[in-house]
Amino acid sequence: MATTKMIKKVDGKEVVFDNSIIQDNHKVTVGVVYNTNKNRKDLVVYDTHSWSGDVTGAYPTVPYNDTGRYEVFIHQGLEGSKGGVVYADGTDSTARKWLVAFDTPNNKCYVEAGPIGPTDWNVVEVHLNKSEGYSNYTDPAFGGKAAARVHSLDDVTNRRLDVFFSY
User: Fold this and answer.
1) Closest among 52, 44, 108 to 79, alpha carbons compared
2) Which one of 21, 43, 93, 99 has the fewest CB atoms closer than 10 angstroms to its CB?
């Protein structure tokens, strides 16, 4: 295990990651998730998938906030991170979901927004493989919006994934 702390600036704030959770030689993706949905509900994890690497700990619940507050997750792997998470604002038939998938070794991300329901990760991977470093989507029926961008954190191995969910 690494013995130092990883300190990264995220939107002008220092976020300290205890390197006891960062494995040696792993490439790290720092996911920064914002939730500004108009129904003012917290977003909870609905589904997850990892093709390469793993989330460290757990994906966080993302509280509603219109003042720029965010939650952070870490996904890491020897070859980098390729995974996805689906957030939802509830579990009943009127709930909405937001999806972000990322392939940071290839600087790709993909987003969706829409009604709650099962996730076909094979279809998501097809879309992710065709995507680029920026993705946005607006649900045509209900207006849920999702956007994401992958960029270098501070070197060529570590990446930052900015994710914005609104409605």
Assistant:
1) 52
2) 93
